[in-house]
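re: ur msg from earlier - yeah i can do the pyridoxal-5'-phosphate complex, just paste it... oh wait u already did. ok heres what im feeding in:
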Amino acid sequence: MDKKVFVTKPSIPTLDEYIDEIKDIFDSHQLTNFGPKHNLLKKKLEEYFDVKHVSLFVNGHSALECAIDVFDFSKGSEIITTPFTFVSTTNAIVRCGMKPVFCDINENDYTIDVSKIEGLITDKTVAIIPVHVYGNVCNVEEIDRIAKKHNLKVIYDAAHVFGVKYKDKSIASYGDISMFSFHATKVFNTIEGGCLCFSDDNKADKLEQLKDFGIVDAESVKYIGGNAKMNELQAAMGICNLRHIDQWIKDRKAVVEHYRKRLSGVEGIKLSKIQSDVTSNYAYLPVVFENYKYTRDEIFNKLSEKAIYARKYFYPLTYELECYRDRKVDCPLAHKISQNVLTLPLYPDIDKEIIDTICDIILK
Ligand SMILES: *Cc1c(COP(=O)(O)O)cnc(C)c1O
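and the outut:
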């Protein structure tokens, strides 16, 4: 193969379609600050997610920080979360002045182990931030039960679950707030971008203000907000991509099925369990190598030699990263999965031949 293959490839409209969408922007000169493209995408996403409120952001990480900020938790409060995620989840908690309390994950779908949450709750706990990792849905019912019982807020890191449904209901409708990332590498992108989905009317204005310096109007600033607004060119990209998302998810499904056909039933190779009641978006293809003839790192290296760049998502765990290493935590299962998992290349128009090459290298 002469071309490099990466774990993902951003899905984009044709150049003509994008140019057509941004013409109005060049006519009006309105580049940002809640313009017509922003407002249209917001409306379309409220329909798509089937939620009352969508608040658009310049990226998913800033959205997550604002989701934490909007509750006004006192500084030093504890938030229960998992370390088996992109570093953004932990960083957002710490940057908002909260203390992350790490809960282990479960072995079936790598989301938070709900049986371990209550043991971590103290009088300082204010919220849970579970991660729908790889597009797998957390045990939302049990999380909801625990949160209600202990009066905790639930903010989902839903960066991986764009388009996912659970029991025929939009995944965005669970918890107090869900954060979606629209980064270039995600199932749906606005180049960079993200949003919060929620139903509480009282949060709508505050979130719009928090991402715009806390400004209420020309002479009034109510909150010490930052700047995290989605601009018009991002929103235009989102409007285009939303036209194709159903097809892209269908194409992803075919890719995942092809991988599964080749790799399932092989001793030592573990694919995530297919979740019941979940309409998947086929966001990632994590494969765990346990007592397989090759280690995860050996397979990673062999693929790299052929210019195929799989990724060790999520390794290291966030608490094992340099900036968090002083924290004493132990999540043995997350640690084990993190040591053995490899996420394989997956995007809607990936060549079937590339999938076969990857599987041949793994199985040979
Ligand atoms: C991508 C991602 C984020 C951050 O989103 P950005 O849009 O890149 O800021 C947060 N959490 C998880 C799990 C992610 O994968």
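cool cool. The radius of gyration is 21 Å. ping me if u need the other ligands too
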